[in-house]
Design brief:
alpha/beta, 5 helices, 203 residues, 5-stranded mixed β-sheet, transport, membrane, elongated
Length: 203
Amino acid sequence: MARRSAPEVNAGSMADIAFLLLIFFLVTTTIEKDKGIARQLPPIEDVVDPPILKQKNLFIVSVNKDDQLLVEDELMQLKDLRQAAIDFLDNGGVASECSYCKGRRDPASSDNPDKAVISVQNDRLTSYKMYINVQNELVAAYNFLRNRESQRLFGWKYTEKKADIAEGKIKGAQAEAIEEKLEEIQLMFPLKLSEAEPKQAGQ
């Protein structure tokens, strides 16, 4: 009696199926975007004589290798940094230069937000977490003041409208009109955050 041969499995289309699955997973998989600190570098300019900066218009923030915060030569907790930066930026030492400033108008502090510069210096052994936390607190100080002024002038928060435009919730002519107002607020409190070259450990 003749032996019956086993039926063969046709594997000719397996390559096509594998290729289709590969395309499916490539199209449907979402890749998490890296998050970083949004900074725009200034344009390259040939500056022969750097502008003279008064010491009172400079807010110096230092972080050492042990993640200790030194602000204006005084030890400070991270939770107090935001308010200290707000007080410096909003001081309005020269009243005629900043009618919208609500600070103490201390003549020993910044003249106006346009002249106020925050200088951050880290040690090479400063932890990345502390570096990010300091940056967040300083940017939050600017955002607080920008929100306050946009609320006063336009009835909405600067950060909310900026996020709405970035996410595409506001488009077209309306977005352009709001962007002009955002730029107006940015000019009132320009982000002047300077990062000095990190020091060697222990210096």
